[in-house]
Fold these 3 entries.
Entry 1:
Amino acid sequence: MFTKVKPRSVSDDIVDQMVSAIFSGDLS
């Protein structure tokens, strides 16, 4: 997906988890 050049923040990690859950739910 996107290349993260700056250090990951907690909010970014939460957003990534939410997006992953939504995509996996839609694709499964």
Entry 2:
Amino acid sequence: LWTLVFGFFLFYLVDNAIKAASAFRELIASKNIQAEVMSSIIKVGEVALKGNDNFIAVENVALKTNLNKNKVQDERVEEECELEKILLVKSDSIINGLCPDEHTTSLSDDEVKITNVAWMIIFGDAVHNFIDGLSIGAAFTRGILSGISVSIAVLCEELPHELGDVAILIHSGMKLRKALVYNLLSALTCYAGFIIGVVLGGIGSADQYIFALAGGLFIYISFAHMIPDMNGKLEMELKQNFKNGLGIFFVQFSGILVGLVCLFFLATYNEQIHL
């Protein structure tokens, strides 16, 4: 029991530590982006001031040339041409100096968001999948039936979970291929956990502690993520379309009921089932 409680609070701490680290990274990234924007604004202001200085210098030259009556027309035409060239060059430099900074800032902001999401997916799922592998490996040391039953339970939980992770990565702006690669990397820890679970499962009562730790993980995921998401989607659908909301409730209730019935029969008739 205490191992189960320890597993619950362990994954509570891990989950919130990952969220805190991601929030800290976003805060640092936003400060860097603000600094880049301020530096670009200062550069644009300096360019504008230089343009005004050049404009004043051209006006002074034009006034001086007016003193010379023999060259008034030629000097004014030349100065007006120079003025137009200077203003065009400075305006182009302002536009070209501002637009790339805005474009780069936008790209860096998107890249930071994608990086944070991918980082949370990799480390969060890595811990989760490692414990899944531990439980599967320890279950197979008890018997084939136990291993298959635990594998099916993990599959039923992991399939929608992994699909949701891929959907989150794609929604954040990541391409499908890269999202699948990140998801695959986070799933590789399951194999390491499986090997360790097989080794530890044959040592005394270590498998009981592994199952308790994995049970704490599943309980935390259920109460912290799955049930709140299910309730949120159900409430939203009931407000928008009551009939569709009832359909979603029936599907959710049926899934929970089928899972409980399967667990009941596996626990009750475990010794009578032979493979």
Entry 3:
Amino acid sequence: MSQLKKFSFNIRSTIYLNNQINFQSNDDIQNAFKDFKDNQIISCVDYFPKIKQVECHIYSYPYRLKDYQRITNNFRDRFFQYIREISLLDEPSFEHEFFLRIAQLFPNMKILTLFND
């Protein structure tokens, strides 16, 4: 592994909260990747209290995959030139400005799916 120059990844995890109070924050996750000197690591933690669930998305940037799933209002602004398909999770509800951000950050998007629970 010492020869590895670049490591690209995309990780999404879901944690179901039964009686848990403590879980990872964005800062905790960013701290875990502090030794990745040549990689920019982006993390986003979303809390869904109604369904007792936490979703965590961690990826290396620039993001080179063709899709990006379950974007929420907590989404980090970055430019995504390779992505063609995205899905949005409408919790809490999106405002007009959010859709303008999506249009600017995903210039090659062809398919948009909206999940409204």
